[in-house]
Amino acid sequence: MKKEIVIIGGGLAGSEAAYQILKRGGRARVIEMKPVKYSPAHTLPTFAELVCSNSLKSDSIENASGLLKEEMRLMGSLVIRAAEATRVPAGKTLAVDRTEFSRYITGELERMGAVIERAEAVSIPADRPLIIATGPLTSDAFAGAVSGLIGRERLYFFDAVAPIVYKESIDFEKAFKASRYGKGGDDYINCPFSEDEYERFYSALTAAEGFASHEFDSLNYFEGCMPIEELARRGPKTLLFGPMRPVGLRDPRTQARPFAIVQLRRENQEDTLYNIVGFQTRMTIPEQKRVFRLIPGLEKAEFARFGKLHRNSYIDSPSLLNKSLQLKGDNSIFFAGQMTGVEGYVESAVSGLLAGMNACRLAEGRETVAPPPTTMTGALLAHITAPSKDFQPMNANMGLLPELPGKDRRERQAERALKDMKAWVLAGSLPDGQSSYPVPEV
Ligand SMILES: Cc1cc2nc3c(=O)[nH]c(=O)nc-3n(C[C@H](O)[C@H](O)[C@H](O)COP(=O)(O)OP(=O)(O)OC[C@H]3O[C@@H](n4cnc5c(N)ncnc54)[C@H](O)[C@@H]3O)c2cc1C
Asked: 145, 267, 366, 415: least surrounded by Cβ within 10 Å?
């Protein structure tokens, strides 16, 4: 009899993990608190509930999310199969009927013999292997248990995320590289403002439309998480003494100190992504595009991730997890889903896929694995587990992939990712040697 693998949380990650275990002939027990207890955002009693949008984003492989989904097809994902079976028309976007999607996944897990326990986990069970996938709205009692396991300072409760832009979309005729007071080399990109430019930006920022506040999302902002537009509303000078202070910087073109500065900090080793420092925001996505493109040098900025602020339980994966999603201090405990610092439905599901696959391998006494870093899955896992001083959640984006010189870069990065994923799958990384989908020729 194969060892039972316990999964806490039957969301996107936990459901995919359970399926991966079952399809390898393993035994899976899922502890899910619904319908005994619901988070403020969940309403359905079934598994893998999409709590907000019904979209799993683009299905085109030149797009990071589309590429990730194609890789998941190669790895035989239940979430992607369910999405295709319950798809609603939405052009190139993979949108689903959320009730049918959730029902499909629940039905499939039941049919395959998952043991389902409807209860709130309030402590870390002694069972091993164990997968923790309780998501961004992990219940308070269990969050307490997780912080006891990993250390209080390594569990975060809020996601105060600043936008990330592609470096190639920054205008270096205006922006320049320098660190304040010349300390720290050329690590920052600086966007200098004249007084007029600042006034225009300030008016747009303070008038911008924000996300409607969800009741589960009402926060008492603490200073470090203050949205930039809220800070700006305190008065026109607040930003000039805060994130937009120009001290210690001179514009190399004028040799003068700019009236205000926006700084961007490098986000990845490939040097393709830059974070707008201190610009966490609740503005809507169209407003973020409109307002942030008023920053000199960012007029044509392309965003790899938009800013946001909401409740989100996630752990300091860079210090806690290896690339196979195992806890460094106890490698029979896996984390999966949004808790690991991936961001998004599909990203959460793919981390569940890997955690399920690896928990199975561990139970069979085999080595755990991670996909090549040239794949979107591998690059995402490498990113969330790479050393980082200021770890923030990350969604799939093309800037995570190692660079390729020359023309049609994105297309060739996508081709390379699928070729490498196919080779990895066929090399037996999936113990059943094949996916549940025919592997397309790349
Ligand atoms: C309000 C909100 C809106 C979001 N909107 C989007 C969006 O539109 N698009 C997008 O791509 N991403 C969105 N996300 C981000 C994220 O992708 C989803 O939250 C995703 O569902 C995360 O998957 P998961 O498996 O990690 O967690 P979940 O899907 O939330 O699954 C976790 C499961 O664990 C259960 N659980 C929690 N605590 C316990 C416990 N103690 N014991 C037993 N069970 C427990 C929960 O009931 C839940 O079923 C949103 C997140 C939030 C919070």
From this structure: 366
